[in-house]
Amino acid sequence: MSGGHSDRLYVPGASAVHRLPPQCKLVAVLTFVLIVVATPRDQFWAFGLYAVVLASVAAVARVPAPVILRRMVVELPFLVFALLLPFVSHGERVQFFGLTVSEAGLLGAWNVLAKGTLGVVASILLAATTEPRTLLLGLERLHLPALMVQIMSFMFRYADVIGGEMHRMRIARESRGFQARDVRQLRVVAQSAGALFIRSYERGERVHLAMLSRGYAGSMPVIVDVRAGRGQWLTAAALPMPALAIAVTAWSLT
């Protein structure tokens, strides 16, 4: 798994968050996200406290703020959608920074933006503190079907291989004077995509035969022990438990 694209998301460290077993972190992040989604959208203070909880986790894990901010670009499409909601939604109109917008759309935009951002940051922290191979072992510990874990493992492992093949094919096209300027070049691009599929399929066949020759019998060997003790589960609960207390308080004030 070393050297793959997904490893670039991992921030090496020896913090308490890094040392937690992956299944503990997966359950903690999933529970946190579900609690955030279930929080009433008009309890604005609750989302501020959720942000404080995540900031505390980032501080303990020693994940730099610039790293988190750069990776938050992934939610840009959701941000654009949220910004459009106040203008396209129906209902009572209100003034907001000199603009006439829908009140329901404004609350909907806040709901998408706040909950989406918190979920994205929680996922970024998970990826920054857990190596991809270890994350897959955590999924296996949580009884995700072994076949799905293996498929994801190979996807992580060979994403860069396929990316390198695409890069070499692009260089070969450009060295022959090809430039994709308009739709007339779609035929060449489609042929390249077909060739890439055939090469990927053939490579997969060779890899499978190599695995069988080395004794593969349907399961991958476990290299790292990721068993979790009660104390580690309690440590991981430091993320969802404060969030649960915040959510319960928010619902009681609704």
Biggest β-sheet: strands ordered side by side in the sheet: 1-2
Helix % is: 55-70%
The main β sheet shows up as: 2 strands, antiparallel
- Number of E-type strands: 2
The fraction of residues in strands falls at: under 5%
Please report the number of helical segments. Answer: 11
How would you spell out the order of helices and strands? Answer: HHHHHEEHHHHHH
Q: What distance lies between the first and last C-alpha atoms, to the nearest angstrom?
A: 48 Å
CA gyration radius, whole angstroms: 23 Å
Query: Runs with pLDDT <50, length 5+?
Result: 1-6
What is this structure's SSE topology?
Blueprint: H1 16-19, H2 22-38, H3 44-61, H4 65-71, H5 76-88, E1 93-96, E2 99-102, H6 103-129, H7 132-141, H8 146-175, H9 186-213, H10 230-236, H11 240-252
Antiparallel strand pairs: 1-2
Helix pairs in contact: 2-6, 2-7, 2-11, 3-6, 3-11, 5-6, 7-8
Task: Describe the structure concisely.
With 254 residues, the chain is mostly helical. The chain has helices spanning 16-19, 22-38, 44-61, 65-71, 76-88, 103-129, 132-141, 146-175, 186-213, 230-236, 240-252, and strands at residues 93-96, 99-102.
Task: Provide a descriptive summary of the structure in words.
With 254 residues, this protein is mostly helical. The protein has two domains: 5-138 and 227-252, no CATH class; 145-213. The protein has eleven helices and two strands; from the N terminus they run αααααββαααααα. The protein has a two-stranded antiparallel ribbon. A hairpin with a 2-residue loop joins β1 and β2. α3 (44-61) runs antiparallel to α11 and α5 packs antiparallel against α6. The chain starts with 15 loop residues before the first helix and ends with a helix.
